[in-house]
């Protein structure tokens, strides 16, 4: 029997990875609970309270990202890849500033989640929303946008984790399915989160009637946003995922299957 099996190291590594996965799940759940609470509280802070809540949401996004490395430090190359994905997401939003509500940014964020995992997807989405608002304008809506786009990357990463979608080499049926998921995700989850910021921003005394008006008024906007996401995923997802897969294989970047460093 090989020595690695005799001394129990594979079992130890497996146990360490399970513990790391549990820690990662707990940190993600904590971020998902704390982020909306922070956004709500930030709206009640007088002045520019959204800057504080936005900063806290970025911290919530960073913690699961670093926990996911299972005891080792992320390399400069890995952080650079995350930065490039974030910049690409920001550019995707800025490039279509002249088309109302047409935002391919969510598609790039979902691709980041698919390629690098839910933690990276949440981080890219949160930071991209914050950074792009230096172009579109900061305000009380910023923390909600950070939460919404972070969730888009998180959901995409979870779908890849459970093997609903591969991390590269999407067949045409998978591309169509991913585009459909992107549309549904925007209309059914991301859009309503963004509408919630409008609801709280407009209401001094929230009522069911006002909620109905806000969410129904947001449907056409979310449909356009969803269509932009679906179209971008259909056209861009496979080439970008393949490029990221080559980088992951060549340099071993963002590969959570790598063993812990001693």
Automatic annotation (TrEMBL):
Show the InterPro entries listed in the entry.
ECF_substrate-spec-like
TM region positions: 25-44, 50-67, 79-99, 144-164, 176-194, 214-241
Q: Name one GO cellular component term.
A: membrane
Q: Which domain of life is it from?
A: Bacteria
For this UniProt record, give its keywords in alphabetical order, as a comma-separated list: Membrane, Transmembrane, Transmembrane helix
| Keyword Nucleotide-binding appears in the UniProt entry | no
Q: What name does this protein carry?
A: ECF transporter S component
- Name its species: Adlercreutzia hattorii
């Amino acid at each position: 029997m090989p020595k690695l099996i005799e001394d129990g190291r594979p079992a130890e590594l497996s146990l360490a990875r399970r513990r790391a996965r549990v820690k990662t799940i707990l940190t993600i759940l904590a971020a998902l609970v704390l982020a909306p609470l922070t956004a709500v509280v930030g709206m009640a802070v007088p002045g520019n309270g959204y800057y504080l809540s936005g900063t806290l949401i970025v911290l919530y996004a960073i913690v699961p990202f670093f926990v996911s490395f299972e005891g080792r430090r992320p390399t400069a190359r890995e952080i650079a890849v995350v930065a490039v994905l974030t910049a690409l997401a920001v550019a995707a939003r800025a490039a279509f500033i002249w088309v109302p509500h047409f935002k391919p940014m969510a598609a790039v964020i979902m691709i980041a989640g698919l390629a690098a995992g839910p933690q990276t997807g949440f981080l890219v989405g949160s930071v991209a929303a914050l950074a792009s608002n230096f172009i579109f304008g900061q305000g009380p809506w910023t923390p909600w946008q950070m939460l919404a786009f972070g969730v888009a990357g998180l959901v995409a990463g979870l779908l890849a984790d459970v093997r609903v979608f591969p991390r590269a080499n999407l067949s045409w049926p998978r591309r169509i399915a991913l585009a459909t998921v992107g549309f549904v995700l925007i209309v059914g989850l991301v859009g309503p989160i963004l509408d919630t910021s409008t609801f709280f921003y407009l209401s001094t005394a929230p009522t069911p009637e006002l909620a109905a008006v806000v969410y129904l008024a947001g449907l056409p906007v979310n449909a356009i946003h969803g269509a932009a996401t679906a179209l971008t995923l259909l056209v861009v997802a496979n080439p970008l995922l393949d490029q990221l897969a080559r980088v992951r294989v060549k340099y071993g970047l963002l590969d959570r299957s790598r063993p812990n460093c001693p």
